[in-house]
Amino acid sequence: VIRALIDRVKYLNKQVPAAENVVILRSLRNALLGFELRAARRHGRELPAYWGPIEDVTTCTTCGHIACGDHS
């Protein structure tokens, strides 16, 4: 859901740029990062230190998380 919201805000920003979109994107990315950090901790994994925009990072086709080593 968060990934869909990020895509929507990016689309809307291309239509009519707005300063609020920057804040919204940052907040959504932070929320997504929080979920990814939680999942990584629960599964005993560490996330890479930097990967660029989190929505562009390749995700596991099974569980949908980033840096997943369980389903490779």
Provide structural commentary.
The protein is mostly helical. 53% of the residues lie in helices and 0% in strands. The chain has two helices and no strands. Helix 1 (2-15) runs antiparallel to helix 2. The longest helix is centred in the middle third of the chain and has 24 residues, at 19-42. It is elongated. The model has no long low-confidence stretch (mean pLDDT 92).
Q: How would a crystallographer describe the biggest sheet? A: none
Q: Mean of residue pLDDT?
A: 92
Unreliable spans are none
Contiguous helical run count: 2
Rounded Rg: 14 Å
**Fraction of residues in H or I helices:** 40-55%
Q: Which structural category do the helix and sheet elements fall into?
A: mainly alpha
Strand content: under 5%
Order of helices and strands: HH
N-to-C span:
23 Å
Please count the beta strands (DSSP E, at least 2 residues each).
Answer: 0
> Which overall shape is indicated by the principal axes computed on the Cα atoms?
elongated
Quick overview:
The chain is mostly helical and 72 residues long. The chain has helices at residues 2-15, 19-42.
Main features:
mainly alpha
Break the fold down into its secondary structure elements and pairings.
Blueprint: H1 2-15, H2 19-42
Helix pairs in contact: 1-2
